[in-house]
Design goal:
Length: 333
């Protein structure tokens, strides 16, 4: 089995690294300086990488990020810049990268250097050992305790609700074989959650543990609102179990109301000293409270799925490309 997995993986391959950026002007010099050191000529020779190129997705930056990257490309940076027409969001930017990637191996990492690029070389070795997907697992995060707790809670709720086995504490940082990228591109949904789709398409996965570092420069673009949308979109994209929970909740809510009503009838028929009107008031209040809480929770879950369905039915593209640098040639020419 091992020989089949590793067949054809001993020779040179080309690597493309997807880097989504949004207002990251201050970190660009540190980013490309680090990448230049990690993927120098000796490292490429040692890991049999015939080429290493960067696929940079500018997600509607309003600062000089795109201009600075275009300048670096003109100065010889081995990269392509895909500029989106506005800020479509991190997951859409990753989808744009996957759609435009052409290499044998495709890596995904954040531009803020919280994901150490040195780990990508370990992922390449894992690929040579038979992995189709090598993904990073965060053993520790250099972030505040509240965010750490929120991330840990999300990954565990997500893993519980997902209908495929998803790894805990694993984000988008990964390396994908060409066939995995092609499989993900064939999926029809437009509101994509790449880390979930990466798991859904299957193939052979290997976890690479690492320590997630603090940002080198600038501030995180993921505020609490963005993290909330990421969490709800991710769960709605990968599971219908919340809808099944709604079904069970409705059943048990009705059962609870029935039990309360039966208890009331029994107490009244036994001639309890307590005024029956008091019993009725208590039972009705409890029943209304219980059913109202369940109904509100159900409406919340329904709204997430209905909103997602509404956006999918519109058929709008996941992203719109405004410009590529260097400019892509017209195939008709």
């Amino acid at each position: 089995m091992a020989s089949q997995l590793t067949a054809g993986r001993d020779g040179p391959v080309d690597l493309e690294i997807i880097l989504p950026v949004f207002n990251e002007e201050t970190v660009l010099d540190a980013l490309f300086g680090r990448l230049d050191l990690v993927f120098d000529s000796q490292a490429r020779l040692d890991h049999q990488l015939s080429s290493v190129r960067f696929l940079i997705i500018d997600d509607g930056s309003s600062d000089n990020t795109a201009a600075r990257i275009a300048q670096l490309i003109r100065e010889g940076l081995p990269a392509r810049l895909i500029r989106l027409s506005r800020n479509f969001g991190h997951q859409a930017a990753l989808s744009a990268g996957l759609d435009h990637a052409k290499a044998d191996l495709v890596a995904i990492m954040d531009a803020d250097l919280q994901d150490p690029p040195e780990i990508i070389l370990e992922m390449v070795q894992a690929w040579r050992g038979g992995a189709d997907v090598a993904f990073g697992v965060r053993e520790n995060r250099k972030e505040g305790i509240i965010k750490k707790f929120a991330y840990a809670a999300f990954y565990r709720v997500y893993a519980f609700l997902a209908e495929v086995d998803v790894p805990l504490d694993s984000g988008d940082f990964s390396l994908l074989d060409r066939k995995v990228v092609e499989a993900m591109k064939q999926l029809p949904e437009r509101l994509r959650f790449p880390r979930g789709l990466r798991t859904w398409v299957g193939f052979n996965h290997v976890a690479i543990p690492y320590e997630r570092l603090a940002r080198q420069e600038g501030e995180s673009k993921y505020d609490w609102r963005s993290l909330y949308h990421l969490a709800t979109d991710g769960i709605a994209a990968m599971s219908i179990r919340p809808l099944r929970i709604v079904q069970f909740s409705t059943f048990f809510s009705s059962l609870f109301t029935l039990i309360l009503g039966t208890g009331l009838a029994v107490r009244v028929s036994m001639g309890s000293n307590l005024d029956p009107e008091v019993y009725w008031s208590l039972i009705v209040c409890l029943a209304v409270l219980a059913t109202s809480s369940v109904n509100l929770a159900c409406l919340y879950i329904f709204s997430a799925y209905i909103g997602r369905t509404y956006l999918e039915i519109k058929g709008r593209p996941t992203f719109v490309v405004m410009e590529t640098v260097p400019a892509e040639k017209d195939p008709s020419e």
